[in-house]
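Write out the bound-state structure for tetrahydrodeoxyuridine.
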Amino acid sequence: MKEVKIETHLKVYDSINDLPQNIQELMTFASQARLNAYAPYSKFLVGAAILLDNDEVVTGNNQENACYPSGLCAERTAIYYAGSKYPKSKMLKLAIIAGSQEGQTNRPIPPCGSCRQAILEYEIKQDSDIEIYFMGTTGKVIQSHSLSNLFPLGFDRSFL
Ligand code: THU
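---
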């Protein structure tokens, strides 16, 4: 038996104001998209914005359903839209902002496991990293240089 240690490296910014200007802009797109979320059941609103290598920004938000599992997270709404509209473009950066409809959420909200699995697929498809930034509605912003950094031992096509 041997023990294996897996390390993750993240950057933590104290606030959105400390981000580089282009990331602040991307986060603002995510924040605007969040306001269009359809979340009557959880009242938890999430917005996502993806910067592509063709300079387009694609946004998404969570879309819920009375049959709960039929709803979709903001990140997958955005990533599938980007994949369907610009299949040849690489996704460079993803900004995520999330929090309750009632009051502020002062801690960074990471993408759920299903969204990580979906994002991983596109990193492999395009053979390059997607830089990820996530935050609550206020407070700190966490940056990961790649999805794989947030999702060790992910399942991918190499296992098929
Ligand atoms: N949600 C997202 O949009 N992204 C995540 O990564 C976590 C959860 C949504 C799904 C649901 O509409 C609401 O937040 C509460 O789970």
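---
The longest strand covers residues 91-100.
The chain has one domain: 11-123+136-151.
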